Amino acid sequence: MHGLKVIFKKELADHFSSYRFIILFSLIGMVSLIISYMVGLTIKNELQGIAKPKFVFLMLFISQGGLFSFVQFVAFFGPLIGLILGFDLINRERNEGTLSRILSQPIYRDAVINGKFLAGVTTISIMMVSIILVITGLGLKMIGVIPGVEELCRIFLYLIISIIYISFWLGVAILFSILFRSVTTSALAVLAAWIFFSFFIPLGANIIAKAYVPDTGGENPEVLIRQASIQRAISLSSPIILYSDATATIIDPTRKTTRSFVLMGPFEKISQERFSGPLTIDQSLLIVLPYIITLIAITVVCFSISYTVFMRQEIRSA
Questions:
Q1: Where do the H-state alpha helices sit in the chain?
Q2: Domain boundaries, the chain
């Protein structure tokens, strides 16, 4: 435990004192503030002189400010936080010879990998909490609406899911940092992983769905449903899609499903009209619970692989 605390404090100090962290935090924070300011300005102008609707505060996170909303921004660019923080955590120290010197001290090897990961998760948590608090303060000033208890609970759940999601990418970065001795190679590997899950999985899902169920001409409901089912099944292999669907449903009470494509018959439309009110937070959480569990599971699996590989590796002194 002593060794873990030492590594944790050292890594935390390294993160907060590095130019990399300062630049990354400034960039992410600046873009988030710009998006929130544009959304807040739009909401303020549109709701001027009329009664504020329920859950209007949550629109700061789900409404688009320019190209994308804050939720979409974190889903797409959030992985870069974890990847940049972790792509050289192990191989840099191995190349500099400091890793062998650390292990020559009365510090267990598992304390090194655990301390580095915990310090990264703490750094990610501080970044996300700070950004969301600033956005919340900006929203209070611009919109002039105090968020209710349920809105605060939804924002808190969104924060927890975001930390888990970015921590997964931190685990991926640490794994590549262990597998590859070269810092450049590990940086290229984590960038390739991000590009693959961000672009190739959604694009490939669409291509495979249309190849497996070709269009028959016209809008055939059966064909559209089968294509959408195949495309969604493949897309859910991407953590980005899991996170996007989970957070969009949590932060938007009016969203009844994680699916973006829903084909309804007359009876379904009548049912939707009867139960068209916003979902409670318990109902929203129940819908996305499988997605949250999956994100937690892949994060644990990824770090477990990193832990196992690191514990089995031979570390020689320089």
A1: 2-17, 19-46, 59-62, 70-86, 91-96, 98-103, 109-143, 149-179, 183-195, 201-212, 221-235, 239-251, 266-274, 281-312
A2: 2-312
